[in-house]
Write the structure tokens for this entry.
Amino acid sequence: MTTKTDVLIIGGGAIGLSAAYYLLKSGRGVTVLDKAEIGEGSSAGNAGHIVPSHIVPLAAPGVIPTAIKWMLDPPRSPFGIKISLSPAYLGWLMRFAAACNAQNVERGIPAFKGIGLLSAANFAQMITEENFDCAYAEGGLLFLYQTEKEFAGGRHEAELLHKHDMPAEIFGRDAIREREPAALETVIGGVDFSGDSSLHPGIFLRLLKERIGEMGADLREHTPVTRIIAENGKITHVVTSAGEFEPRLVVLAAGAWSPQVARGLSISIPIQPARGYSLTMPATKTMPRGALLLGERKIAVTPMGSKLRFTGRLEIGEMSTEPNMRWIANIEKAVREYIRVDESDVVIEETWAGLRPTTPDGMPIIGFSPRHENLILATGHAMLGLSLGPGTGQVVAELANGQNPACDLQAFRAGRF
Ligand SMILES: Cc1cc2nc3c(=O)[nH]c(=O)nc-3n(C[C@H](O)[C@H](O)[C@H](O)COP(=O)(O)OP(=O)(O)OC[C@H]3O[C@@H](n4cnc5c(N)ncnc54)[C@H](O)[C@@H]3O)c2cc1C
């Protein structure tokens, strides 16, 4: 059976659902296909941080030496890397190393600032307008530090943000416990990225999925795309396990699976998964006041209403979404080195692993395919796919409707690889 559709979105994660929302608002017809349950991919169990402060791409000077240093301390390392001789994987690693330079950062900063601020404003608007009850908190994101070296790095980041007219406040040893009473004496200072916010991503995505359904989207779960057929620079058919679709426009938002879904289309989508883990428990007696990032260990701590979530690790090249219990335990132990968490309070209800879709220059891919007039790519958001979701959704709808996007997408253009 062949179904004709207006916009066909492949992937129902933070990016696909956000695109669906803004496309529907603009009057387009939308079908969302997902190989599993919509909203349950790599977006649901993440840290829930909305971080317009995050303006520096992952590929930046100093990243490679730091990663090597971390790997020499395996039990505490926030970073891991798969060993594989696959040419695509080795090519990706070489491209990533080559992109760790000042020019990449210069290109990335205005682009991330533009889409990050747009997205943060869209979250606030959408959550208010749609009355989403998803533990949304605009209290900032507080980085906590235990060593002078990392604290100096945090202060440097705060200065960088000030240079770009973005807020960041520094707290010394005496002031930090007033800002975050749960911080232990081991914490010597902190930086509050006060324009950031947080929410419960699983609840947000469930509400967004329900809202999109009410707005008229055709939501198809457990419907994997097996093939995309193109003719004369145009996608003509999208083949799934439950029949074929004949779309006017396709949005590819399949996260870490995007290269697999697009194979056969002769476009370069160099994305590798960067796996990470989370554990979630009921609210503890000494809940932190707001969202935290533990500087040396790169672990996120997020109060989410009646829940508390810890998130960490970045393992390049790992595609399985099976949580590794050794790392889950390490994350939980590391959090207790920074903040008060009574051991008896730790009742782990949920463990999770997800994949950050990561490009070699650390920037997302947003724009029309260089080879197909009716294919928009919206993928590769790495560690920012939730945060940049509603911003990406808006610009995808604008591109689909032939309008100028609200922010500059040149650094994210699809044909750059
Ligand atoms: C530990 C961890 C913590 C994180 N914390 C944050 C955070 O605090 N803030 C933030 O902004 N980001 C965070 N991220 C990153 C964020 O989770 C990702 O960037 C985001 O999930 C990517 O969204 P997406 O919609 O592109 O992909 P996904 O959410 O992975 O969605 C892609 C969808 O495509 C579907 N799909 C795949 N193949 C097919 C197919 N063949 N046919 C149909 N459908 C298919 C999948 O089932 C999936 O549902 C974190 C990630 C991890 C791992």
Residues 113 and 164 are 9 Å apart (CA to CA).
